[in-house]
Structure formats: C-alpha cells, structure tokens
C-alpha cells in the first residue's frame, strides 16, 4: 500500500504567521487519497515544540512512500528548513 505523509505549512512562531483557519488543502488531499485506497497522514509541525525531532520520529515510524510539503509565502523559510532538514 502506498503511504503518503503530507506536511502542513510550518508557522515557527506558533500563530504569528498563520491564517486564522487551518490549512484545509492538505486535509482535502489526504481525504481524496484515502478514498482511493491510499494510507495518508498529515503532519502539523506548528503544534510541536520541536518540529524537526517530531518530523523525524514520524518519518521513522510511518515510513511513507511519498512526502508532500505545503508551503506558503509567509512560512516559506521555515517550510524549506523542514524540507532540507
């Protein structure tokens, strides 16, 4: 089975860069993938004290076949730091 991990935009400042609504796009994509038989999870880096360690833990435990990152212009630097970490 294909396992997909989608990563939400990373608001490093926990609320100063984000919009007042959650990033529903990644959740919609995840729902679509699930409805087509794929195993999909969403990782929310902004809710963790140490997003890098939690992402590493998630990657090691879940072992996704595909990883997708959602990036916004306001969180670009922090999103790219996760991608390149």
Characterization of this structure:
The chain is of the alpha/beta class and 85 residues long. The chain is built from three helices and three strands. Strands 2-1-3 form a three-stranded parallel beta sheet, with helices on both faces. The mean pLDDT is 89.
Low-confidence stretches: none
Instruction: Give the rounded overall mean pLDDT.
Output: 89
Strand portion: 15-25%
Strand arrangement within the widest β-sheet reads: 2-1-3
Largest sheet: 3 strands, parallel
| Terminal-residue CA separation | 26 Å
How many beta-strand segments?
3
**Count of helical regions:** 3
| Shape category | globular
Name the helicity range: 25-40%
Structure class: alpha/beta
Q: Which value, in Å, is the CA radius of gyration?
A: 13 Å
Order of helices and strands: EHEHEH
Topology:
Blueprint: E1 3-7, H1 24-35, E2 39-43, H2 51-62, E3 66-69, H3 76-84
Parallel strand pairs: 1-2, 1-3
Question: Which features would summarize this protein structure in a list?
Answer:
85 residues, alpha/beta
TL;DR of this structure?
The model has no long low-confidence stretch (mean pLDDT 89).
């Amino acid at each position: 089975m294909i396992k997909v991990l989608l990563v939400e935009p990373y608001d490093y400042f926990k609320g100063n860069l984000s919009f007042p609504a959650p990033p529903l796009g990644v959740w919609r994509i995840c729902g679509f993938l699930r409805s087509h038989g794929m195993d999909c999870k969403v990782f929310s880096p902004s809710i963790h004290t140490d997003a890098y360690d939690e992402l590493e833990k998630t990657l090691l435990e879940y072992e996704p076949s595909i990883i997708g990152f959602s990036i916004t212009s306001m969180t670009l630097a922090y999103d790219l730091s996760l991608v390149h970490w």
